[in-house]
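Sample entry (724 residues):
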Amino acid sequence: MTSLITTELVILDADQGTESSAVIRALAATIAEQGRANSADGLAAAAIAREEKTPTGVPGGIAIPHARTEAVTEPSLAMARLNPPVDFGAKDGPADLVFMIAAPDGAGKDHLKLLSKLARSLVKKDFVASLRAAATEQEVVDLVETALGLRETPEEPTTSEADPTTEAAPTSAGPRESAERPRRVVAVTACPTGIAHTYMAADALVQAGSDLGIDVVTETQGSSGTTPIDQSVIAAADAVVFAVDVDVRDKARFAGKPYVQVPVKAGIDDPQGLIRKALAEADAPNGRRLAAAHAADEGEDTSSSAGSRESVGAHLKRVLLTGVSYMIPFVAAGGLLMALGFLLGGFDIPDYAEDIVLGNSLWNLPTEYGDLALGPVGAYLGAVAFQIGNLSMSFLVAALAGYIAFGIADRPGIAPGFTVGAVAVLMGAGFIGGIIGGLLAGYIAHWIGSFAAPRWLRGLMPVVIIPLVASLVSSGLMFMVLGGPISALTEGLDSWLSSMTGTAAVVLGLILGAMMAVDLGGPVNKVAYSFAVAGLAAGSVENPVPWEIMATVMAAGMVPPLAMALATALRPRIFSQAEKENGKAAWLLGAAFISEGAIPFAASDPLRVIPASVVGAGVTGGMTMAFSVTSQAPHGGVFVFFAIDSFLLFLLSVVVGTIISALLVLALKIFVRKGGAAGLAEATDPSAATTTASASTGSTTGPGSADEAKTAEPVSSSADASRV
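Predicted structure, serialized as tokens:
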């Protein structure tokens, strides 16, 4: 196995600027320079995207940015000891020790286990102190390889983890809360990457339990594999801690147990507090219990639902976004395949596709097809692509309903949800029917699962009883009560949209465009996008309005990242080094209709970036509707030009909106921040930044001025240009 870390991957006592993204880019460049990544930008972008989801700073002045990406060719570990420290989001202040973990997309388990072991070592105070005291790069490499067990000195085990032969033993000695049996907490930890936070949270919880005199048994659901906690250990536990950023695998194992659920980083920041909260839930008569299809013991209380502490609005938002996120792959793949079918087989391919795929083959090419097809081969391949895409799109409503129900009732809700979604399609209730049906199926399945069933019936509950009853009730209601009215509402909405022309269509475009930019991939953006893709399959030459809405949504969603890229190119001096680098990546992200490319800018300056993005995207949306531009592809931006009618007008709309947003964000940054002349002077004269930086801290107008005063200083004045 090649070495994870070498002296060339260690940076000691370096000034890497004041932004976490700058540190990440420097470490990514170091890894790429050693031939361990084929793209420093790709690695940095993946790590920064992970950082934006959950900051990787942990207590003790440590940060562990990490990524698993195809840009990495060899598992690597780069380390920087920073002077000055940089804020990575830890509660106790900035980090001076930064380890960047870079793993290939298909990294082997041996390497992932070593990387996970390093993350665990970073909770050891003596190891961290040795890193801070190291005088040379080789000394750091020696310390790390020793911690990873690659040197002679053995490492002491730090965590109690899922071995049924040892889990019943106490994890620590010390005062116990009960003379008969120590209290026990079981914990599951998981983060999206499954490399660092997963294992650090597990070790922090075990150590906290040892300090409190409480047995803590952990299950790490990480990239290097999972060993489930033995069911007998779960049964004997007093409470459960879920420190996770992703879904817990086989969560029903913990049914009926008192629990708390928090982001994985909370398991690192406050492990003792989490253990106390979990035990407080166990001691409270009406404490939170994990409801599921069956309970672990007959007498356990399952009256409180898993979401009992979640507000109604937050709960609905979560389950609806769950449905949309699982639906989008069906739409993206299906829509692009249908668009490819139109390209190869002509726009009348829907009239021929089914007959061609059933009656012909590559050895028996069709003789009857539309005039616009690219010959017999084009007609056949186009028909195949169109039919595959059309079948994928036919799952849209069923997948939406099924995974909404899954978000409410877990796996027992999937079958009732898919079934009621199919009924909604049959009844003509469409997208609205899928949402209502999915909610109905999910809540019915959840309600049935909350019953304390007899022990002999529990095994049948999730696989037979709940799907049967929930499908019967929810689909029956859709057939007999809800389907007709929802179908009428859907038909009325379709007729209203189809009749839109002139001013009304432009207003719709303005609204949809603004929605695409207001939260850049968040709930409002997803509502507009889902509205567009839901009607995509209903579009036709006779009724192009659904295709026009799709083009409007896609064009508007491209504007925010493109505008930020343009703004950084026009006035680079008013942006930080990290923003300028993000601006370069935003060109491609925007062109591909990835609105999230503007998130780094919006996160650092929301009160200027978001309003500017909304205005430009709204103008683009209004223009595409006014021009009657259509798109038969649900994603891809300029790369699906073949599926966009009036492509030049589509581009014109995007360009106009991009220019408007870019100029507006520049005007807001220059004039609103410093009152016109001062801001303009800084934007055009780099020396103005240094002379006005101190004054700007107290004299700026608008929220966030203190942060902006920092960016007014020359970003690279003391940074190592070769690394940043």
